[in-house]
Amino acid sequence: MNKQEIINSLHESFEGKPWYGNSLSTYLQEVHADMLNFSIGDGHSIGQIIEHIIYWRELVTNRLKNHTEIIIGDDSGSEWPCKTYPAEMQNTFFAQIRATQKELILNIERSDETLLYKTVPGKDYTFAYLIKGVIDHDIYHLGQLYYLISAAKKANENSGKDD
Fold first, then answer.
1. What pLDDT shows up at residue 72?
2. Torsion sign (Cα): 147, 148, 150, 154
3. By CB neighbour count within 10 A (0-12 exposed, 13-18 middle, 19+ buried), where does 11 fall?
4. Which residues contact 116 (CB under 8 A, 6 or more apart)?
5. Position 158 confidence tier, pLDDT thresholds 50, 70, 90
6. Which element (helix H / strand E) includes 105?
């Protein structure tokens, strides 16, 4: 993949019309503030998944900017925060995720094409593979978001019927 193909893939999965269904932006528009803490059983909440997506996009962007080693699975809790989210976090999350999209693309555009084929420090894969990985990561979590959004809407409908 070259830079333009990667940028096109980022655009498509984020706000385009990908072959597999809706884009990340489309699903995020369906998230209402009262859904952020919705989860099923002991699973991650919608807010946690959104924050997790932001975390990974920021991580990859930092590696593109600084060409530093990627440390995955740290113990800081930043990868999977365990907390509840106030309603006003909805707008913050949406602003953050849009900012990560812009920043990621900007850093790819600014980088030399040869960076894509260089090995990420401390890893055995290239920057192109890493960036494709963040796209795949977003798509993976889209399925979870869709399922949770649908379940949250259903739960909301059912709770309204009981009144």
1. 56
2. positive
3. middle
4. 1, 2, 3, 6, 126, 127, 128, 131
5. confident
6. helix 89-110
Which amino acid makes up residue 87?
A: A
Identity (one letter) of the amino acid at 63?
R
**How distant is the alpha carbon of residue 81 from its chain centre?**
14
User: Would residue 122 be called left, alpha or beta, if left means φ above 0 and alpha means ψ between -120 and 50 degrees?
Assistant: left
List pLDDT tens digits, range 74-127: 545 567 776 789 888 889 999 999 999 999 999 999 999 999 999 988 889 999
20-50 per-position pLDDT tens digit: 889 999 999 999 999 999 999 989 999 999 9
Helix axis angle for 127-161 and 3-15, nearest 10°, is 0
CA atoms within 13 A on the CB side of 142: 20
Q: Which two tokens mark 131?
A: 């960036």
One-letter identity of residue 69: E
Single pTM value for the model = 0.88
How far apart CA 77 and CA 101 sit, in angstroms, is 23
Cβ distance 9 to 127 under 8 Å?
Answer: no
| Angstrom distance (rounded) from CA 117 to CA 6 | 13
Q: Please compute, for residue 160, the number of CA atoms within 13 A of its CA located in the half-sphere on the CB side.
A: 6
**Structure token digits, residue 70:** 């990627």
